[in-house]
């Protein structure tokens, strides 16, 4: 399951964050960052899912 979340986070960052943390503030923030630019959303998604 962890590899699927990693792939989802790389391809569609909000989907990966929502899959691991649910639809909450973290997923909403990641969605906004991804809409502003793919790279900020990707960095945030990887940080939230794997640095904590």
From TrEMBL:
Cellular component terms (Gene Ontology): membrane
Keywords on record: Membrane, Transmembrane, Transmembrane helix
Cellular localization per UniProt: Membrane
InterPro entries assigned: PMP3
Transmembrane segment boundaries: 28-50
Pfam families per UniProt: Pmp3
Superkingdom as given in the UniProt entry: Bacteria
Record bears the keyword tRNA-binding: no
Similarity section: Belongs to the UPF0057 (PMP3) family.
UniProt-listed PANTHER family: HYDROPHOBIC PROTEIN RCI2 LOW TEMPERATURE AND SALT RESPONSIVE PROTEIN LTI6 -RELATED (PTHR21659), UPF0057 MEMBRANE PROTEIN ZK632.10-RELATED (PTHR21659:SF42)
Record protein name field: YqaE/Pmp3 family membrane protein
Species: Qipengyuania flava
